[in-house]
Every structure is written in C-alpha cells, then in structure tokens.
Design goal:
Helix content: 25-40%
Radius of gyration: 22 Å
Distance between the termini: 19 Å
Shape: globular
Strand content: 15-25%
CATH class of the largest domain: Alpha Beta
CATH topology of the largest domain: Glycerate kinase, domain 2
Number of helices: 14
Number of strands: 18
CATH architecture of the largest domain: Alpha-Beta Complex
C-alpha cells in the first residue's frame, strides 16, 4: 500500500495548543504506518509568528534577545523579547513578533487598558537591531503584529526611534518621554523627523504581516473593532477614536497620505497605518499567511501532498477572510487536494470550497476537556474521521 503524504498546516488553538503541537497531534492520531508527514506551523501575523517563520528551506535562524520594559504605564519590570536573525552575505533578515513585546497576554486582566499601553518597547527592539549595522547594510525586517495590547497608532514606537516629534496640547514632548494610547486625544501636531534612526538606513525594508484588513478609523477601524478586547470602556473608545481621527488628519497634512480607509491600517491599534505613512517607502503591508507561506514553500508542499490538514481554535466568518484556513483551502482547491479542517468549535456551516471537510472538538468532547487536553482530543478526532478523510480524497481523485 502506498504511503500517503500528509501536510499539517495549522494555526494555533488559542489558549490551548500551539500550531506545531496541532500537527503532532494528527501524527499521533493517524500513526506513521501508512503515512508520511510534514508539519508546517502557520500564523496570520499574530501570536505564533516567530514559531511559524523560524524555519525555512535554507536552515534555521539565529535566536537573539533584548530587554525592554513591560508595555504598561507605571511598570519598571523588564521582559526578555526574542527575535530571529539570519545573514546571507551582506543581507540581514530579522523576524519580530509584536505580541512578545507589547502583547495582550503580557498583561494581567486589571492592567488591560489601551490608555495605559504603548508600543515604545517595540521601538527599543527595532533600534537595537538597526544599531548593529552600517548605514549601507541591506536590512529586511519581518514583523507580525497581531495580539497587541496597544492602540497608539504606533507612535510610541516611532517616537522611540526618533522618527516623529509629538506635540500634546501645543507642547513638544521631551525626547525620552513615552507616548501612551491615552495621549492620542491631546495630539496637536506630529512632526516628521528625517534624522530618525530608520531614515538613516537607505536599504531598510520592513514587511508588516497584517492579520486583518480593517481600516485606520471608522466603524471597522482599529478602535471600534479591537480596543474593547484590549480593555477599553465605551467612553474610552470614543476618546480613542477622536484621537485616531486627529492622527489621520495630521498624517494627511504632513505626508499627503490618507490612511483613514487604507486596508490593514487599523491592525494592532493602528501601528500598520502609522508605520506605512510615516516610514513611507520603507514599509509594506502584507498578509501574514502569504508571507509565511512563501518562506516555507507552502504551495509546493501542498501540491506534493495527498491530504492536507489545517485548522484553528474557532472556525467562523473571520476564518473566511484571509486567515490561515481560507488560504490553505484555496491552495487545496488549486491543486485538487482534500482540505481537512479540524477546529475547536465550528461556528459556521459553510465551507471554503467543495474540497473541504470540517470537524470540531466540541461536537465530541466537553468544553473543559477540549481546553485542558486539546492534544489528545485532536488526535482522537483525526483518528475517528480517518475513513471519512480517505473517502474524500478518493472522491476528489475520481
């Protein structure tokens, strides 16, 4: 009997299982008697971005660290932030995950308030990287920005890097002063400083992996879509939105760039829009899954597989909008491969295309067991539906 090639291309199951462990669960569930596996953990740009991108076809990245302060006001505690680097001749590639610097999971529940958080620490990390290099070096930074605790339009980071000088109520902030989300409402001007650190590197490129397509402001913007989950009250959301509108107007005035409705600009509390407009020409906004897919030769892996597994904690309408599952499903359709979606909970009945099957843990296991023993539950789910999966493959072949 021919050994079938199986590709495991999962996103994380949030709060319960990392993407790589999801793939291992499928291996355990199906066993390795009749199957060969390739396990490629994925991320749409949020938590798990480092894990998903650290291995490519040319070898592993070197792991480095930098110390920064926690991203919340009135905290002097330091955290260790990991990042990956790789050098090929005079080309330097870095991979950062914003969630490790100013992620929501770094804060206690009572600390979560986007008025009191800042992307300043991310500026420290980027600055640390740039200062290691000569001004002519080719530096390429890949940055996943999902899972943040911030809503400061990236100004905390950009100010730390010296790219902007900010006036609050007509008064210029001092050079070492941290810009917090709560300062947005008091912005009277944003002055672009062309002597800022990133501007000194003519061969610097920053690719931002956006996990959403939300604009900078408005009903689908950064504030109204994401700040509630970061701890903002209804009153605070209105104040933050006014501040973000002011930022958009000032950027339009000084940079002649309208980020108000720019797709993806609202990602991570507006940092995507802030970076794109102020570091104009050095920054690209990209889909995280496409970025990771290119590095891991994901399309080639799927084209050479017999069965493809994917999934995430919750399969819902967001899964259809450029997330990991929808991207894998598209590739499976392109190469006529069965796409098996295993998830914690299936909240919609529609499937991305006719090549897909979807099964969820909650239909078989109690919620508490799904959360506490996700690995074993996922392994059992794969084994239970093995015959369904093989029939699906045969149906596509016929």
């Amino acid at each position: 009997m021919k050994r079938l090639q199986i590709a495991c291309c999962f996103d994380k199951f949030k709060d319960s299982l990392k993407a790589r462990e999801c793939g291992k669960a499928i291996m355990q569930g199906l066993g390795q008697v009749n199957y060969d596996f390739v396990n490629i953990p994925l991320s749409d740009g949020g938590e798990g971005f480092l894990e998903a991108i650290k291995k490519d076809q040319e070898g592993n990245y070197q792991l480095d660290h930098v110390q920064v302060r926690r991203p919340v006001r009135n905290s002097d505690l330091m955290i260790t932030v990991p990042y990956f680097r790789k050098q090929v001749e005079n080309n330097f590639l870095y991979v950062l995950e914003m969630a490790t610097v100013c992620g929501l999971e770094l804060l206690k529940m009572e600390e979560r308030n986007p008025f009191n958080t800042s992307t300043f620490g991310l500026g420290v990390v980027i600055g640390n990287i740039l200062k290691q290099h000569g001004k002519k070096d080719h530096i390429h930074i890949l940055m996943g920005i999902g899972g943040s605790c911030t809503n400061d339009a990236g100004l905390g980071c950009l100010k730390c890097l010296g790219c902007v000088d900010i006036e609050l109520n007509g008064k210029l902030m001092s050079s070492g002063e941290v810009f917090w989300g709560g300062d947005l409402i008091n912005i009277s001007d944003i002055l672009i400083n062309t002597e800022g650190l990133p501007f000194q590197y003519e061969n610097l490129t920053i690719d931002i992996a956006c996990d959403v397509n939300n604009p900078f402001i408005g009903e689908r913007g950064a504030v109204h879509t994401f700040s509630k989950q970061k701890g903002a009250t209804e009153e605070q959301r209105e104040i933050l939105e006014k501040g973000m509108n002011q930022v958009a107007k000032l950027i339009q005035r000084h940079q002649n760039i309208d980020i108000s409705n720019l797709s993806g600009a609202g990602a991570a509390g507006g940092i995507a829009g802030g970076f794109y407009s102020i570091l104009n020409g050095q920054v690209n906004l990209k889909k995280g899954i496409e970025m990771i897919g290119a590095i891991n030769n994901l399309e080639q892996v799927i084209s050479q597989s017999d069965i493809v597994f994917t999934g995430e904690g919750s399969y819902d309408h967001q899964s259809e909008g450029g997330k990991v599952v929808s991207w894998i499903a598209q590739l499976c359709k392109k190469y006529s491969k069965p796409c098996i979606i295993l998830c914690g909970q299936k909240k919609i009945e529609t499937l991305p295309n006719e090549n897909c099957l979807a099964f969820d843990l909650i239909s078989k296991f109690k919620l508490e067991e799904c959360m506490s023993n996700t690995f074993e539950c996922l392994a059992q789910l794969a084994k239970e539906h093995e015959n369904d999966i093989l029939k699906k493959r045969q149906g596509i072949l016929n």
